[in-house]
Structure formats: structure tokens, C-alpha cells
Write a structure and sequence with these properties.
396 residues; 4-stranded antiparallel beta sheet; Alpha-Beta Plaits; Nucleotidyltransferase, domain 5; 2 domains; alpha/beta; single chain
């Protein structure tokens, strides 16, 4: 990946790269006098995480950012929000889209072995927006420039993306002739970071954020398993998703929703309860019903939303039948249990809440083996980090 310092100093990139918009205020200032082009790339690791091959480029142009729906309210009990659809957003803004599929067969063949032991290129979601073309890598720049040349030139053109480390890499190396078309650029991760006053490391991904604003999950997530049309992202779909997120972040009335969902995201744990060595963090409650947890509290993020007003530190799942929430004090834990134990959900289930006492059944030998494995993983992670430096990690 290209480094931050290279883009800042390189004469071919420095003018655009240094004209970076990072706040909602800056976004609103350029909005009226600009058109917007979203860029997304899909790339595949071949022999290592650093050895990547460009597989797809998505472009979407719009003069406007509007929606047939009002601003999206934060989730609340019993609320049914309107289902927002990406095809409607594409249609309402009269967008132009282009998906460029890179022909990798000449260089790699049909059954190239990828990182993880996978054979061949991933099967991506079908093309849905605008045109789709297959090009050889040496013809990619000409195809991108041709698309840009045909766009209206009545306003300045602003480049938009989300987490743009890879996009800047391929823009500067594979189609640099596109750079002069743009007057400024916006990484929507910067805008979300400014709204939430958060570090980039604690921001949700594009798919989580767009669903925060009510977009239907089937429009934005690739399918899984044998019944799906594709199990990997499509760059042509992701650029429309990016512009939909740009519209949502531009409207200040949506910021309360983002702040709520971001707080829940920070609370939600990706794993189960771990041993706590600080006694101040040992205030844990379990939540269960008879059988599996109801759908409304069946994940860490749903638990965080449902019990947000109790201010848990962390929420998560021990299993499909047991959820947990951690608190800062015995008083907070006792209050949570007194309110939640015996609570009846709208779906009829009765919740049971009680204090969780951690018992560590592992022997010292188990702990030693676990620590050795942890060290090996850390060494491997550090080696990977040295091998490839992601651009977005250098922005902050």
C-alpha cells in the first residue's frame, strides 16, 4: 500500500491529497457547488496479505444527494422504521454508475491459489447499478478517464470514499490520469469520526453504518452459502452505498442516530466473557429466557441497544441461550438485575437476570499453553504489520 508521506510529497498526488475535507462543516461548504464521484476498489490477496491483485473498480457519479425518506430516527422499542432501498436512492438521484471487472485470467489463470487456500477469484454480488465492463489491467486507466470525461463539468468534482487507503493506492498507481479531474476528496470515515469524536480504530465499517440509517441489509450485504448469487462485495454496489452514507452524514438530523448506534457499537463485544484481573470490572450479569434468546437480544449489538439506558460497559453472548452485560459498580449491577429479572418482552418471553460468577477451570499448564499461543499470534501479527502498511492507519 502507498504511504501517507508519499502522497503528500508526490507532485502527481499532493495537490488533491492535501485538499482533504474531514468535517461535516467542510462537507456542507462544498456541497452546493460540487458534483460527487464515489470510488471503490476490490482486491484479492494472492501469496500474502501484501501481495494483492486488483479485481474490480466501482465508480458512481451524482449531482445531488437526496432521498424520498425523512431523516432516520434512532431505534426505540416498538418502532418500525421505513425500509430504505439502494435502488431507490440510485434512481432518485439520477446517478451514473460504472463497474469495471479486471480480467485476471491472463496473468493468474482460472484457478489461482489465494491466501487462505481458496482457488480462483471470489464470486462477487451481481452488478446492479449503471454499466458493467470487463477490461485488462493495462486498459483500466483509459476506461476510468473515458467515464470521467463524459461527466458534466458545470461544477467541481469531489472524490468520495470510505476507508480510502486502497483507493488511493490504485488511483495513484493504476489510473493516475484520473487525479486532475478532482478538486477535493472526502473519506467518510473522517466525517463519521468527527461527528462521534472517536478514533478511526473504533469506527464501525461501511455496512454497519449504512444499516444504522435504515437501509435494507439485503441491499448492502453479500449473500452467504450455496443459495447466494455471490459471497463477496461488488465495487459497483459499494459506491452507491458510499453515496447513500454521504447523504445520511450530511444531514445533521441524522447525527443523533449515529451517536446512539456508535455508542452501542463500542459497548457490544465480539466475544464471550473473559477473565477480569481488575476487580472493578467484575460486575457481570447474565440474561436468559427459556431456550434461545429472542431475536431482539440475540446479538451483542442488540443487547447493547435494548439495555442502553442501564449504561453497560460491555454486552455480549456466552452462547445462543445466554447474554451478558458488565457494569462499573455493584450498585449498577444490582439496579440492572432488579429491573431486568422478571421483565416481560413484547414478544411474551420473560427474562431472567442474575450475577455471573467466573470460575476458571483451567490448570496452570493450560494457562501456559494459552499464553504461548497468544505470543505466537502476536509475533505473526507484527510480521504482517511490517509487511503491509495500510494507508488509513497513517492518517490520524
Amino acid at each position: 500500500m502507498v504511504r501517507y508521506q508519499q502522497l503528500e510529497r508526490d507532485p502527481a498526488t499532493q495537490i488533491l491529497f492535501n485538499n482533504r475535507i474531514t468535517t461535516p462543516k467542510g462537507f456542507r461548504e462544498v456541497f452546493e457547488n460540487s458534483n460527487f464521484l464515489a470510488l471503490d476498489t476490490e482486491h484479492v490477496a494472492i501469496t500474502s496479505k501484501g501481495d494483492r491483485v486488483l479485481h474490480q473498480v466501482g465508480l458512481a457519479f451524482t449531482r445531488t444527494l437526496k432521498s424520498r425518506h425523512p431523516p432516520c430516527p434512532a431505534r426505540s422499542l416498538g418502532m418500525i422504521r421505513p425500509k430504505r432501498r439502494l435502488p431507490h436512492f440510485f434512481e432518485d438521484n439520477e446517478m451514473e454508475g460504472l463497474t469495471l471487472k479486471i480480467n485476471t485470467k491472463k496473468e493468474l489463470g482460472d484457478q489461482v491459489l489465494r491466501v487462505g487456500g481458496f482457488k480462483g477469484m471470489p464470486i462477487r454480488r451481481p452488478h446492479r447499478f449503471g454499466e458493467e465492463k470487463t477490461v485488462d489491467i493495462e486498459d483500466l486507466e483509459a476506461s476510468v478517464v473515458e467515464f470521467l470525461q463524459d461527466l458534466p463539468k458545470d461544477k467541481k468534482l469531489v472524490l468520495i470514499g470510505f476507508g480510502m487507503g486502497a483507493e488511493w493506492t490504485y488511483l495513484s498507481t493504476n489510473f493516475p490520469a484520473a487525479i486532475p479531474f478532482f478538486s477535493a476528496w472526502i473519506d467518510l470515515g473522517d466525517i463519521a469520526k468527527d461527528i462521534t469524536s472517536s478514533l478511526l480504530a473504533y469506527l464501525p465499517n461501511l455496512l454497519f453504518l449504512i444499516q444504522t440509517f435504515g437501509y435494507w441489509w439485503k441491499d448492502v450485504k453479500p449473500g452467504r452459502g450455496c443459495h447466494s448469487d455471490g459471497n463477496a462485495d461488488n465495487a459497483g454496489g459499494d459506491v452507491v452505498t458510499t453515496l447513500a452514507l454521504a447523504h445520511a452524514l450530511l444531514d445533521e438530523r441524522n447525527h443523533k442516530t449515529l451517536l446512539f448506534e456508535h455508542a452501542c457499537f463500542r459497548t457490544a463485544s465480539s466475544g464471550g466473557v473473559r477473565p477480569f484481573y481488575n476487580p472493578a470490572k467484575c460486575f457481570i450479569a447474565t440474561v436468559r429466557t427459556e431456550g434461545q434468546l429472542p431475536i431482539k437480544i440475540s446479538s451483542s449489538i442488540r443487547l447493547a441497544r435494548r439495555f442502553f439506558d442501564f449504561h453497560p460497559v460491555v454486552t455480549g453472548l456466552m452462547s445462543s441461550e445466554i447474554g451478558f452485560a458488565t457494569f462499573r459498580s455493584q450498585e449498577e449491577l444490582d439496579y440492572f438485575i432488579s429491573c431486568v429479572d422478571g421483565m416481560v418482552l413484547r414478544t411474551g418471553e420473560t427474562l431472567s437476570a442474575q450475577r455471573y460468577i467466573h470460575v476458571n477451570p483451567k490448570t496452570p499448564e493450560d494457562e501456559k499453553l494459552k499464553e504461548e499461543k497468544r505470543m505466537l499470534r502476536r509475533i505473526k501479527r507484527e510480521a504482517d504489520d511490517e509487511e503491509v502498511v495500510e494507508l488509513e492507519d497513517l492518517f490520524s
